[in-house]
Amino acid sequence: MGRYSRLRTIRRMDPVRDCAEILRLMSQYEFPWDYRQGVSVAFLRDFGVPRISVLLDRTQEFERNGQKRYDDTVLIGYEMAADGFDSERGRAAARHLNRIHGRYRIPNEDYLYVLATTVVGPKRWIDRFGWRPLCRQEVQALAEVGRSMGRMMGIESVPATYAEFEELLDAYEAEMFAPAPANRRVATATLRTMAGWYPSPLRPLVARFALALLDEPLLRALGFTPQPRWLRTLAVRAVRARSYGVRLLPARPGWLPSRPRPRSYPFGYRLDDLGPHWAQNRPVEPLPDEAPGAADRPGAAPRRAPEGLTRP
């Protein structure tokens, strides 16, 4: 397979109908490492908002179970998209995610922002460091993935286009980014988890390298000082050098997708393993389009109720 064969395939696809398949090709074949880095930066951006970080800090999930918390977030997103967002697998993952969030009072605008980080974060990283830029179909597919997730989570006023997601993210951060002790604690716990993927002698350097790649508004909100200019330059050049090397490699073969390899579940996982332990005991609610009366709303398609739930 030629280096640009999948790009030609993606350009022939419908980004609305095929958004889950385009995401699979992007995240498992074209940009597996870059996509993960973009998602990781998206996690950190959430912590720059005190209202979000205070809630996360209160749960102590990042401090006590940082690796599991990271793995669970990645795996729930993977489960939602793996067989398509309208598959039973995808809808079961969405119900489970809603069950976890149902314990907390989270404003709709915070849901929108976190959703926007997962759409904008990967694109901005790939634009900056990827071995090639994203094509129009890939960018639109990212927005459609965000719209699908927002619909399944019952989030209101989800943007319709990538440009609207980006505008929402920038406006929200301009208003809501602010330093707070909880920001620093949650971010430090997350960076500690990420640095833990490397040998002990390298961990301090890995953490500083990661900070050198973050923008100054985010660093200020997280309570970190910018790294020296020489380290920022070195970090950017090192990641870009990697992308130049990747561009020269053959395409990843179809039999070798890059799938999540969660360190917390070396022997596999079930959906109920993901998230806090208390979530397993909470009732599962129907998705917004599965609730009674949803089929009567304009434009709504009838859905089968999840197992264990019946409609009156």
Average pLDDT works out at 91
Strand content: under 5%
Secondary structural class: mainly alpha
Distance between the termini: 53 Å
Radius of gyration: 20 Å
Q: Enumerate the spans where pLDDT stays under 50 for 5 or more consecutive residues.
A: 298-312
Number of strands: 0
Largest sheet: none
Give the SSE layout.
Layout: H1 5-11, H2 19-30, H3 32-46, H4 50-59, H5 61-82, H6 88-101, H7 108-129, H8 136-153, H9 162-176, H10 181-195, H11 203-212, H12 216-222, H13 229-248
Helix pairs in contact: 2-3, 2-8, 3-7, 4-10, 5-6, 5-10, 7-8, 7-9, 10-11, 11-13
Describe this structure in words.
- The chain is mostly helical.
- 60% of the residues lie in helices and 0% in strands.
- Helix 3 (32-46) packs antiparallel against helix 7.
- The longest helix is centred in the first third of the chain and has 22 residues, at 61-82.
- The N and C termini lie far apart (53 Å).
